[in-house]
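User: Predict the full complex structure for these chains.
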Amino acid sequence: MRTAEALRMAVEALRVNRLRSMLTMLGVIIGVLSVVILVAIGTGAKNAVEKEIAGLGSNIILVVPGQVGLGAAPTQSRLDLADVAYVRRVVGDPSKVTVAVNSGEPVRVGRVEVFATLTGTDENMPHVFDRPLRRGRYLTETDVDTRRRVVILGSEVAAKLFGDVDPIGRQVTIAGVRFRVIGVYETVGSTFGVARDQEVHLPVTTAQRLIGLPRINGIAVGASGPDEIEPLRRRVVAALDARYPGETFSAVTQTQLLGTIGTVLGMLTGVLAAIAGISLLVGGVGVSNIMLVSVRERTKEIGLRKALGARGRDILGQFLIEAVLLTTIGGVIGILTGVGGALLIQAVSPVPASITWWSIVLAFGVSAAVGVFFGVAPARRAARLDPVVALRTD
Amino acid sequence: MSRDERAGGPATAATPGATGAPVPAFEAISLTRSYRLDGGVLVDALRGVSLRIGQGEFAAIVGPSGSGKSTLMHLLGCLDRPTSGTLRVNGVDVATLDDAGLADLRNRTIGFVFQSFHLLARTSALDNVALPLVYRGVSRAERRERARAALEAVGLGHRLTHRPSQMSGGEQQRVAIARALVGDPRVLLADEPTGNLDTRNGEEVMGLLERLNAGGVAVVLVTHDAEVAARARRQIRVRDGRIERDT
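Assistant: Here is the predicted structure of the two-chain assembly.
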């Protein structure tokens, strides 16, 4: 028997039991649909985080006191500006080292008050981080040395405090102290939940006086190229370990962050896909079940076909093709609705969704395989039917 | 296609005069068939049947129910294999064939007519009749052409697209006969072909079988209806798994 003929017979058989075929397909549709959507969401989340990290700038090493990692106790910083100068000597290029002192304070203009993340930094910040200005200027060495009371506003802070008015040269009040606005940053979005457009930058020395502690929270070092990151990281950590024996310092690179987060999100995507895969499996069991019913119902037909000259493998092929047709049609519908669903989620919700071609190919392949796997048992049962017994069945 | 080539064997061997003496349609030597029932009881349905049915014969296998006539027909129809003994169909020893070979032999040599017609519901008369040719790998166009010719031969040329449910019992049985004929078999095996029909339709079907037999096809009827059996030129009476009388 020709394949085209078998296909025509299978389509006919599925059409005859239209409702049943649809319901059986539904199990596969839901399985494939959830695989496609969940993988799209997982991949979308991973892409979004990776974009955030890459958005920081390139080849950055963040040096912080203590251990960095899940479950590690936060460490009281003992680093100060002298340590920054020391790291600068270790690195060799002072412009590639910058500093951060963090605090949260309300920033006020007249009656408008906005809570902002204060970050004390220095003139080298733009050499290490990728942080374009919309207006005004960056901090200068003089700003830092003379503890000038100047600030650069994140775009969101600027918009909330000044609206459409140009803030350059205007005054803001932080903890009772007046500051002059010298710049406004471009909108950059957020990284790890840190809304960077809600930051306010000021000279590190000014920040230390405002907070009342001579400490700093971290040192950021910019490497000259991707190959330089790892040697530089080791050099900086070794230097700090030598300076403070018995204490730990961590240096995190973007590559490490990307790697860790990529692994975690990759696992998450895998788990989601596996859960969705289970529903596909359940759909497959449904196909198997319905095919068994179909074989039983059509016992007489099978007997007749055998009497008329159908070989075992003709019957096997007929029922197998029926099962595979069920699951692949279900698979295609599932892929189409899954892609549509992912696009819809992306359009109406903040959840990022990214459709990957491999998830579609995989979903289709798996649904076809499910058809073969779950169709084989019923089809073999049909192929083995004894024509005498089958014809006698009423 | 390999099926066509292989199947050419028996057909050629069966041609009378091609190799001297004609090969009989069926040749059974000491056929037995036993079944084991679910309870483990062994039932001997056939206890040694020897039989020869020649090309173009018209024979009736008769006997009461439980006599083994249906079992015999299943063996002759290659739907089943004997427990012991030799069966040659058109000169081919069925013991030498695997299941696929047996299916092929059924497809090419034997046409079946059943008491309850066994037509596919929801399928047109034309497609029902064409079904045996599907398993022979015949192209769709040729199948349709031959099915149409077979339906015209049984007087149903005007019913091509009708479904079984739209036809009378007599018409359905004629569709079944057309289906049995479409592959040009050597033998028609008819199991109580008139059992589900009224007298008039039964008469019509018997007339059709007689006409086909006159055309050269051997007809083997299985029946317990003496009147139907009387139409056959030869009557083989089966009782308790043995041939009681053969006239």
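The domain at 2-246 of chain B is CATH 3.40.50.300 (Rossmann fold).
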